[in-house]
Amino acid sequence: MHPSSGDRKMEQLKGRIIYKGKAKADALVTTMPISFYGGVDPNTGVVIEKDHELNGISIKDKVLVFPQGKGSTVGSYTLYRLKKNNAAPAAMINKETETIVAVGAIISEIPFVDKIDISRIKTGDKITIENDSVAIP
Amino acid sequence: MELTKQEQAMLNGAEGYAVRKSMEILVALGEIFGAKNLIDVGSVQVAGVSYHNLGDAGLDFLDSLAKDGRVKVLTTLNPAGMDMENWQQLGISPEFAEKQKLVIDAFTRMGILISCTCTPYLIGNLPLYGEHIAWSESSAVTFANSVLGARTNREGGPSALAAAFVGKTPCYGLHLNENRIPDIHIQVNTELSKLSDWGALGYAIGKKAENKIPYITGIKKADLDALKSLSASLVTYGAKPLFYMKGITPGAETQTQPKETVTIEASDIQNAYDNINDQGNEIDFVCVGCPHCSIKEIQEIADLIKDKKIADTTELWVATSRTAKQLADKRGYTAIIEAAGGKFACDTCMAVAPLKGRFKALATTSAKGCFYSRQNLMKTKMGSMKECIQAAVTGKWNN
Question: So what's the pLDDT on residue B399?
């Protein structure tokens, strides 16, 4: 038996790959859906939607964890713009995704997994994503 | 999802970047929505054309696809953010025009017909009953599913483009019989007397049949413009992009009338007007053609406005396809409307042009047009073509 397997308690969650890839970064978690078009500043990655619990916080280089997208289908292009401006999340995790964010992740090549129990993840957790696997401390 | 050898090769990049990206999008959507396979599509309608909505990011993405992406099926285009020829007269800035032209250049390189209309079914992209298609533009999707009996989900811009480059779409949702069964019976107990009443009906049904497929009874007569207007407003205000109308649309006779019944009375139509119409009666913008005016509607405008003059304080836009305008040119309708001071807005419309802050109060025949114009910070009034033209002439809403 590996000596550290008892106390390290690294938890492995398995989801569904929407866009494959690897990333390691701090989690930023919200229980609220995100509208990328109009809700996130495409130049900085700061959430600008009024009344959103992430308002004023940047999603840049985070593992962004949220239930699913909402709003205009143009939001797919906002993700692409974030990527071009180096302001995109390092990876994304959804509870159950929909078309806007799925298409956005694919065209922007952002690693993206869904069908994950996002209540297991807390803001600040060091998350490692590799294809369909999500490792949380 | 099961892929053929050829589809797998496309996913692996055998046909280049645009096809690979497209396959990634189609396969991901197929997996998300439980499709078993891809199916051939007869045509595609691509939305996401206005630079106002795309921004530089969208333009970049379209440019990257245009390098090696060529459409495999008949593909038409939604309205742009401006009239591609007459943009200066509509007050569009040269900076915007330059970017909008780059967007159109990218679509041109892809082999798309630069139709720039939300009524592709009026200009040569007319799907047949039962034909699978991949369309974006919610009003056209609803018209195709309901009035024509074709089959499409409500695609976004990128997923429609992906279908065009591959010639296929994942088979789920409204492509399947089991998802096209009506959920709710809407019994209409009132007469609809003018075009805007159909928009009001769409509003009333949309609110009562949120995310459902309505089976509408009680309507004795409907024409193209009525069903075009209903298609736009029904889906804007909440229903699924498919309806049946007993005795009028194809397929209604093969479906069973749902047990759950909701009635639409005259008071529901009035309630729709009350919700759509804001206070005040000063009008500085009259825009008709959401969805784009048919040639019959242009004729009606010409008849109403002949020998009149539009108020100095008001602009009148007739939003339509360039194809319809060319017919109007030959018949003399264009000359009549322009002599009165009206402007044609081809290739564009009030929902996608950069109009925020330009006008204070809109008059239109369209319930959908009111919805989008409120986002552009206008007050809105909806009424008949006659009421709209009168508002253009007097600068006032007469109610």
Answer: 59
